[in-house]
Write a structure and sequence with these properties.
Layout lengths: L1 H11 L15 H7 L14 E3 H11 L1 H4 L17 H8 L14 H11 L10 H14 L8 E3 L35
Antiparallel strand pairs: 1-2
Amino acid sequence: MRAAAALLALAAVPAQAQTYGLGLLASERDLAAWNIDVTPDGAGLPPGSGSVARGRQVYESQCAACHGVKGEGKPADALVGGQGSLNRAQADGKPPLKTIGSFWPYATTVFDFINRAMPYNAPQSLKPDEVYAVTAYLLHLNGILPSDTVLDASTLPRVRMPNRDGFVVDGRPDTGNVPCRRGCVGR
C-alpha cells in the first residue's frame, strides 16, 4: 500500500525538464538541410535537370542490381509494368502489380522517394540532376515519357500519371489531409 501511495504522489508532481548542457539549438540552415520533401504540386523540387538518356546510365549503375535491368524487379520491387492490373485485379482476383506506371498518382512523389531513400545502400547520395534523370528514365520505361525528355522543377509537376485519378478523397471528418507548412494550430 505504501508503494502505491508513493507512486501516486510522484504521478501528481509535474515533470520538470532537465538541462544537461549538451547539443545546440538547430538553426534555420541546419533544418534546411533536412527539409527535402517534395509535394505533389512540385513544391520543394531543387534546381537541376536530367534526361532519360542520363537516367539510364545512373539507373544501370545505382538501381539495376536491386530493381532489375529494366525495372522488372527482383530482388526488390518491380518499378515497371502492371498497367491495367489495378482494374483486372478486381475481375480476375489476382493482386495488382503496383508500380510507378500503374499505381503512383504523381511523378513528383517518384522524385521525392528516390531523392530521400535511394539507392538503398546509400540514401540521399544522388545529386538532384541524377534524381531528375532516374525519374525521367523510369517514367520512360513505364511508357509515360518519350525518350528525348528532360525533366526539371518546372516540367516534372506537369507529368500526368496514368493513375492520377485512381485515388479517392476520404471524406470522413477525422481524416483531413491538409499539409501544414507554418504556424499550424491544433496539430
